[in-house]
Amino acid sequence: MNKVILIGRLTKDPELRFLPGNGTAVSTFTLAVDKNLSKDKKQELEMQNKPTADFLRTVVWGKQAENCANYLAKGRLVAVEGRIETRSYENAEGERIYITEVVAERVQFLEFGDKKETSSDSDINKGFVPVDDEDIPF
Amino acid sequence: MNKVILIGRLTKDPELRFLPGNGTAVSTFTLAVDKNLSKDKKQELEMQNKPTADFLRTVVWGKQAENCANYLAKGRLVAVEGRIETRSYENAEGERIYITEVVAERVQFLEFGDKKETSSDSDINKGFVPVDDEDIPF
Amino acid sequence: MNKVILIGRLTKDPELRFLPGNGTAVSTFTLAVDKNLSKDKKQELEMQNKPTADFLRTVVWGKQAENCANYLAKGRLVAVEGRIETRSYENAEGERIYITEVVAERVQFLEFGDKKETSSDSDINKGFVPVDDEDIPF
Amino acid sequence: MNKVILIGRLTKDPELRFLPGNGTAVSTFTLAVDKNLSKDKKQELEMQNKPTADFLRTVVWGKQAENCANYLAKGRLVAVEGRIETRSYENAEGERIYITEVVAERVQFLEFGDKKETSSDSDINKGFVPVDDEDIPF
DNA sequence: TTTT
DNA sequence: TTTT
Q: Distance, angstroms, CA D78 to C1' F2?
């Protein structure tokens, strides 16, 4: 059993890539999930300029990845059901890097904002950068 | 909403530390959570010497931390309910290191093995090393 | 482990009552939670006039019950974290009736509509009907 | 989102039936899920002869239903991931009966007891009673 | 109608 | 750095 359920907001527009081999779509984004804090504790953290949310790297595969890229944008509220996965890879300096991320099995849109045109210009062809399979240090 | 539910086995005996200020107990361990794989996929990964489990750093606070240290041991099966948290700290080289870990709100023991005496000798006073508050790079 | 997570909409304004003994607040409402159906299956059910949602009786206690009564209304979207409980009681005919309901431990508001004034007039003093402890066949 | 996670013990051997049309397997059993009680509260309930567990009707479909029937038995510990569903049907007296049950999407065995031969004799061909589709008032 |  |  490895179950994760999150409700949070995208910190940026989602990124969309395609695996070179089979063209499988992969979307990644970070969710800001508010910590469940008392009013006092929240204010204390804000005054110390410490984060009052957890920031969780999220990965979506396949058809849902495309839906995310098409309909989600920075700030939008979503519910994610998935699992936590750990991966490791070797970086340029030959160090082993360990990654923990949420693999979304389902993404439920909780807001249907002003569509995707609101995304920044620089996103226009973001979705079409093919990536190398062994090279997804998200 | 930030909810995690895991069922897995401890990869080692749990570690127990105490915060210097108030003496709060903190227990940490890694859970090996089997990936939900088809028989074929599992065999494939085993033949490639790739892991068939996810390894998830888990932190428990307070009274439950002490219970974990007292009753759990390497290999024991537990269910954990908690949340995912992200933290960052600066390491000795001045690099910002980002950590993702599961903070357990409840740990349910699913096996009551051959008690804790089975732990290795070197564990005997493992539980009493006080640590510095800013120095918990688990 | 007894964990339930729901995202759904209130089918009516919440009801609020107070236990006679200690005045503890109890709020109850039913959540309509969309079934996760394919487009085809959904259409099929709609044509047969069968429900495409599950209707789940939900109970909230204490301070959160009052918040629900004050800020929620029919149609509002919420996330609920809680547990399933079973109860039984004897009805007027002396039959044992079995009830299954969701006890909410946390209710997260996902929409902040046009406030609570929109509630129907008949709700105005709904919140102040005391009830007998043994007589909560919700 | 309609998510349920339970860890509990079967109150009886699972029942196995087959839908008349297509022969789909359906297994049903009740899980006793311990309430998360303080020691005092637990003792209090026991002295009053009140249950300290919730009893949750669980339904499993297809291949997993057969696995449950083959490998589970009364008292065995399992983890269930699924959803809550509500149904209604008309009973012999023409009354509308409302049912709430857990539909298991995954059943994880947490104990591998003394096999299934331990089941009572009367179970021997329990699994082969075909049932009428409209007649599953579990 | 309830399990360890 | 990984468990059965």
A: 25
